[in-house]
Amino acid sequence: MHVPLPLVPFETYMLTDDRVSHPMTFTIRLKFSGSIDRLAFEKAVPEALTRHPLLSAHIAESPGGKLAWTWTSEPDPLVNVAEDSVASRFPDSERIDLTIDCGIRIWVRRGVNRVDIRVQFHHACCDGVGAYRFIEDLLCLYHNGVVPVEQHVALRPLDAALLNQRTRFGLSWLKLLMRIPLELWGVTVGFAMFFLRRPVEIHTETPSGTESCDDQTLLDLPAKTLSATQLRRMKEAAKQDRATLNDLLVGDLCLAVHEWNLLKGASKRWKPIRVMIPMSLRGEGDERMPAANVVAMVFVDRHPTWFPNARWLLKSIAWELSFIKLLRLNLAFIRGTSLASRLPGGLRFLTRESRCYATCVLSNMGRVLSEVPLAYQNGQLTAGAMVLERVESAPPIRPHTNVALSVVSYAGRMTLILNYDRHAFTRQAAEELFAVILRQVEIVVGESIDETAEELAGAM
Predict the structure, then answer these.
(1) pLDDT per residue as tens digits for the range 323-362
(2) 74 CB-contact burial (10 Å; exposed 0-12 / middle 13-18 / buried 19+)
(3) Which among 28, 159, 160, 209 would be 20 to 30 A from 5, CA to CA?
(4) CA 120 to CA 135: how far, in whole Å?
(5) Helices within 160-280 (DSSP H only)
(6) Alpha carbon of 221 to those of 87, 93, 169: distances in Å?
């Protein structure tokens, strides 16, 4: 691995889009039953960081004047362990300053037969896939620290040298040359539509600043878990129209935003709803790469009034996303940010906070922590005396993109979590919007999600 390691354009984009008001960070929350050994956990954190260099690195100017990752021999991330009566608070700001801090913070709260762990990541350091790889290592190292040697588990093999290839995306030079016409078309057409079409914003009646944005306590975000039966019904409904679960969720989110704006008298037929969807760009061989940012953004523009019914809306979304995946057109955003980084002020223009670039975000992580080399009980992994019962995540919010819906599947169930901009929404307004989204999901599953609460008792 090259030292120092230059930032790639997409990492610089994430860093440029980082603000005190809207930090480019995301949080993963792990809810366990059982008890935790504090000393063993605090020892496992730096051990896990040694396997993921970007999470323990700082950003500084290299001798050539460009930004680069620099290494510290003794990373000192925030690891805050306390009883669950103590609020989890950011040390100074929710924003992480990568020039002086490493890109990760951890809070642990202990109660009677329960443990709550929240891990905050800077998005310039890694994407969701990389974050879960770090969490996998952290849980395995913690487990090895509290059980006899004969019960130790082997960690996933990682190769830090692969960080030098994090912009190759599995493409050889020959494949890259063959793709030049396609990529030129993707960047030209994609960015023309991106800038010429102005998406609608999610309406909010809350004036800026009415929610207490000075409160640095980590939020308990609106969340709901679907049962295994309800998740199966959603997958079957998508399959009937040759769509994926993700396609179905994009359609449901479009319908929910449209309904919300209609309820608030703010529907605009000439402006589409734009859903931003992160997509992993990892290819063959990248399974050994440490935590890194190997992801792109895809934008789907739709207005439900363009289609006769929800089924045709779903079909159009499924066709577009399958076409993007087939031709790997998700690389267009990466190429566009690379081009912008070469133009004076290009990334500043691309990340300006005065314009809405997307209505909302849908981040579907799929199945998480399902192949960790630890024992499982009823589909739930165990680490020492802890059993992981539920996983939640919260992607970042940027100006005018007021909400981000995160989807996490774990132990046969799917959890929906809504992150929201506290400068634009109160908690009550966010819960009302979340209820509108859930109603769209309930139409698909054919019942109220709350009707099977007893089936979810083991996952809460």
Answers:
(1) 999 888 888 888 889 888 888 888 898 888 888 899 999 9
(2) exposed
(3) 28
(4) 11
(5) 173-178, 180-196, 228-240, 245-263
(6) 15, 18, 33
- Amino acid identity, residue 78? L
Place of tokens 């059993």: 387
**DSSP at 217:** B
Q: pLDDT tens, 413-456?
A: 999 999 999 999 999 999 999 999 999 999 999 888 874 443 44
Q: pLDDT averaged over the chain? A: 90
Q: Is 454 exposed, middle or buried (0-12, 13-18, 19+ CB in 10 A)?
A: exposed
333 close to 167: Cβ distance less than 8 angstroms: no
Residue 378 region by backbone torsions, left for phi larger than 0, else alpha for psi between -120 and 50, else beta:
left
Could you give the strand order of the β-sheet that contains 223-226, starting from the edge strand earlier in sequence? Answer: 223-226, 413-420, 403-410, 360-367, 273-280, 295-302
User: Rounded to 5 degrees, what angle do the CA atoms 120, 286, 246 make?
Assistant: 65
Which CATH superfamily is 5-459 part of? Nonribosomal peptide synthetase, condensation domain (3.30.559.30)
Residue 179 exposed, middle or buried by CB count within 10 Å (0-12, 13-18, 19+): middle
Q: How far is CA 424 from the centre of its chain?
A: 21
Assigned token pair, 218: 């980590």
**With b meaning 16 or more CB within 10 Å and e meaning fewer, what string describes 210-236?**
ebeeeeeebeebbbbbbbbebbebbbe
pLDDT of 206 over the 90 cut? no
**Residue 131 to residue 161: CA distance in whole angstroms:** 18
Q: Angle, to 10 degrees, between the axis of helix 245-263 and the axis of helix 310-327?
A: 130
Residue type at position 74: E
DSSP symbol at 398: B
Crossing angle of helices 228-240 and 427-445, in 10° steps, is 70
Query: Does position 459 have pLDDT exceeding 70, yes or no?
Result: no
CB atoms within 10 A of CB 188: 12
Closest C-alpha among 418, 422, 371, 424 to residue 393: 418
pTM above 0.85, yes or no: yes
Crossing angle for the helix pair 38-49 and 128-146, to the nearest 10 degrees = 130
Q: Which helix (H) or strand (E) holds 299?
A: strand 295-302
